[in-house]
Write a structure and sequence with these properties.
Strands 2-3-1-4 form a four-stranded antiparallel sheet. A two-stranded antiparallel ribbon has the order 5-6. The model has no long low-confidence stretch (mean pLDDT 89). The longest helix has 14 residues. With 163 residues, the protein is an alpha+beta fold. The N and C termini lie far apart (58 Å). Helix 2 crosses helix 3.
């Protein structure tokens, strides 16, 4: 990754809506150079997606979110990748990570109800050949998402200590 790519990614990570023109001005580069850099990162797969961070607690149609830890017996010649790809193919699955520790995969899932998430685990994930066990954790509240606090505390709640 080039220094320019690192700089552009840092800016886009902070605000994906920023224009190529503004990025060029911030980095003292030509707008065409920035556009070409971004296009190249998109084409190579380095830059995967632009997204909005949504505080689901404030949305009218809030979804149930869960972290499902999955312990698997890796298949010969596939390792963990085959199982991860199978699980990732489901539309309810928002992210899959290979992890160290007691469980091998961390699977983030969204659905409309607790029962639907539970059914997803019992009827889909646990039925895969090679899944040894699962542990489901429902996300109750998000305080920080992708490095951003979900609530802005405008008022100062500290107690006065003046005599």
């Amino acid at each position: 990754m080039t220094a320019l790519e690192k700089d552009v990614l840092a800016i886009l990570s902070d605000d994906a809506r920023i224009s190529h023109k503004k990025i060029a001005a911030m980095l003292s580069k030509d707008e065409a150079e920035i556009s070409a850099c971004i296009a190249g990162m998109e084409k190579s797969g380095l830059l995967v997606k632009y997204t909005a961070i949504v505080n689901s607690e404030k949305a009218d149609d809030a979804l149930v979110e869960a972290l499902i830890e999955v312990k698997v017996a890796p298949k010969k010649k596939e390792g963990f990748d085959g199982m991860a790809k199978q699980i990732a193919a489901f539309p309810e699955v928002k992210a899959v990570y290979l992890m160290s520790g007691a469980y091998d995969l961390a699977v983030f899932v969204e659905d409309r109800t607790l029962q639907q998430v539970s059914r997803f685990v019992s009827e889909r994930i646990s039925t895969f050949d090679g899944v040894l066990s699962t542990a489901t954790h429902f996300i109750l509240k998000k305080y920080k998402i992708e490095g951003v606090l979900t609530e802005k505390d405008d008022e100062d709640r500290r107690l006065s200590v003046q005599a």
